[in-house]
Amino acid sequence: MKQSMRSRARPRRSPSQNSKVECLTVGMITLGGGVGVDTSAAYIGPEFARVFYKINYSFRTAIQNLYMIFGGTNWGNLGHPGGYTSYDVGAAIAEDRGVIREKYSELKLQSNFLQASPAYLESHPENGSYGIYTDTTSLAVTRLAGNPTNFYVVRHGELTSQESTSYKLRVNTTAGSLTIPQLGGTLSLNGRDSKIHLVDYNVGDVSLIYSSAELFTWKQTGSKSVVVFYGGEDELHEFAVPANLGKPASIEGDDLQIQQINSTTVIQWAVQPSRRVVHFGNTLEVHLLWRNEAYNYWVLDLPVPGAIGRHVSQSHANRSVIVKAGYLLRTAELTGTSLYLTGDINTTTTLELISAPQPVTSIFFNNQSVQTSVTSGRLTGTLTYHKPNINLPDLTTLNWHYLNTLPEVRDPTYNDDLWTPCTHTTTANPRNLTTPTSLYASDYGYNGGSLLYRGTFTATGNESSLYLLTEGGYAYGYSIWLNNTFLTSWLGEPLYMFSNQTITFPSSLTPGTTYTLTILIDHLGNDENFPANGDFMKDPRGILDYTLHGRDDKSAISWKITGNFGGEHYADLTRGPLNEGAFFAERKGYHLPGAPVEKWTKRSPFEGLPEDEAPGVGFFATTFDLNIPDGYDVPISVVFENSTTVGNGSEPASFRSELFVNGWQFGKYVSHIGPQLSFPVPEGILDYNGSNYLAVTIWAMDESSFKLDGLRLQANAVLQSGYRKPSLVKGEAYKERAGSY
Asked: What are the sequence ranges of the domains in the chain?
């Protein structure tokens, strides 16, 4: 829907009152079956940040909370049914900690501008206007008025506009009323974009008269101010300084127009990928960058001796360095005349010290001395990327072991005496019971992970079918057996969080014979409570209602339930109550390292479940070694190939999988719904220099046979890094669980 800034009425408030914006979106959560995190990242991308965050700045917002910079992973069963294992949501930093999204770099530009601009917090926002500060009515301009600094936030009046709009900016300055650009041409706003133009902006001992280019940052090097401006490619920009600075003493680059007009020196240029630098002696140094080149610049605060106070920090103008260095810089520290940097590179990279508060004669990167030379007064060196030899194991060639993890339907002698009887005749849940006893999982302490029910009854011979109403969250599913006969599965749908179904029995039941219904439900998390006055988070999970057609009394069925072993009195105290579900292998602790796999059948997931055990659930386990060299950050994911098919390959297989790494559940994969295929597992969960235990469940939901087409380890990046190597998370290892069933 098109939305015009003209139709957006701003609430009336005091212009001296600070604004706060909470939980402003950076990413976009999608349901199972949705577009996936990469599309989410592009949808709420850098253009969104430029337009909507700068709208907030035009209100002189003092606090802006962004949700979120880093989302991470819903490991175990932490997630809610509105998502899936990944909580990347297209955030600025990817789930595997990568900073390759342009949105991250755009936020870096904006945050450094705000840090370098204390006058912003002293300004007063005016109402947005059309045709007052520009020569076009298609642009909205909000002036943040200060003394003397003014900020002009320019954006399209229509937020959905993709137009390229040319304009001139009319402003009052300490040098008089000016129309910018003064040296001819026009400014431009191209597509989904917004600009913040500066007037009478102080950079140390110099007051810039104006700049149409946006400010990344400025710092002081002794008595000299170093300023970094940027713009979009091919945009025309101008800045002006007092004429008493004199003409530029030197210029790096070409194609700049320089002219003295009255009491100002005006410099105009068209943005191009190559950098220009304008030197005004030892007073001012101005870097003119293409926006994408500015992404490679980093501002790092130096350590401060002692506490800086709880609420206010001092100016950063003399306590920071500006460095051009590529992929990522983490920390900076000055010791004497040596600058120590830590960071990451993914290719051979030029390192250039743009500004430092004191003289620097040598640079160390990740504790290694960098050979440097002085170019145009700046210390420059090369960071050489050394590609390591990293060979990840081929999972298809490993020794796998297999265990049927649904013995409840395969073993006719299976005993469920230790299961939890469903005997509660009342519930604290807001949904009133429609069954003789509660079948809500949480009433019995099972709050996440898969759920198993066993309903036992003695047949009269009149039973013909079962009506079943269940709820497990969006994209959940279930499978049902009568004794060891498979009846059906609800495969799940992304937009359905419950299902009601009538299942016809395949043949008449024998009077006087005891039958057991086994119902496996994939519990995909409890609801969140977005409206403050709702009870949505109390929505029950499990069986909500049932009818055994041919019997008048629902009490004919006696129910038992199990979920994670022990429920709220869980066995694994290191990983907590939401790491496990109801599968036999989970209840026995076989997903933990050290499980007695040698007693099991040798079989890999690439062979699939045995023919006589599908539909059903199989548990596959193996071990592999990693040897990632020190000095490298290598985010690793376990990736399912989205090509598993049934039978002759005519259609995709319908199955659900859980992924356990060293006992930690780090993936729930639903082949026929998706969208997630790649499951990042961080170092510390993975042992990068030792043995790792990998277990995979495969829940085949129909009678079509299939083999897992592909499962592999993938290095998402190989970064030469100065990061602090994380310790291995020590979780409980396998030991026989007393009372497990």
From this structure: 16-115, 298-307+314-383, 395-404+589-721, 407-562
